[in-house]
């Protein structure tokens, strides 16, 4: 017998690289840098019909080479970007440095944390200046329809 709420679980995350239309080869025309891992869907309408959010995560692996990841864009919904370091003895240390622009101002991030991006705020580019330990990166899109989209690109599928 299948449990009543089994349909609300994601038990095998699907590759969601094609959803993220501002990142990697889709957004930049360049191949994704080898230290940036695949994007996996934690929650989205494609996997859980009725979901009103789209949430992904990726691992960012160590590199000494600065790299561009996400182009400038904006959404008509709120978004939260989350980055966490991988040192359990020092959870506040990101293990690298990322740079992100908000409405043309560049911010440097070297600690685990999150960024709330209100609807309509232009953000990115998002670049990694350096990564000394793996970083977990998540994006939570509060899109209301469970899909990722922006003013620069239309969603696939």
UniProtKB/TrEMBL annotation:
This is Uncharacterized protein. It comes from Microbacterium azadirachtae.
């Amino acid at each position: 017998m299948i449990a009543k709420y089994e349909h609300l679980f994601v038990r095998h995350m699907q590759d969601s690289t094609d959803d993220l239309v501002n990142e990697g080869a889709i957004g930049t025309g360049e191949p994704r840098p080898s230290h940036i891992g695949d994007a996996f869907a934690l929650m989205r309408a494609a996997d859980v019909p009725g979901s009103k959010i789209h949430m992904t995560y990726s691992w960012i692996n160590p590199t000494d080479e600065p790299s561009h990841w996400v182009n400038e864009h904006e959404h008509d919904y709120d978004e939260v970007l989350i980055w966490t370091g991988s040192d359990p003895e020092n959870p506040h240390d990101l293990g690298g440095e990322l740079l992100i622009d908000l409405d043309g101002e560049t911010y440097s991030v070297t600690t685990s944390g999150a960024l709330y991006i209100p609807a309509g705020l232009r953000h990115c580019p998002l670049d990694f200046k350096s990564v000394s330990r793996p970083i977990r990166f998540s994006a939570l899109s509060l899109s209301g329809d469970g899909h990722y989209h922006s003013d620069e690109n239309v969603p696939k599928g």
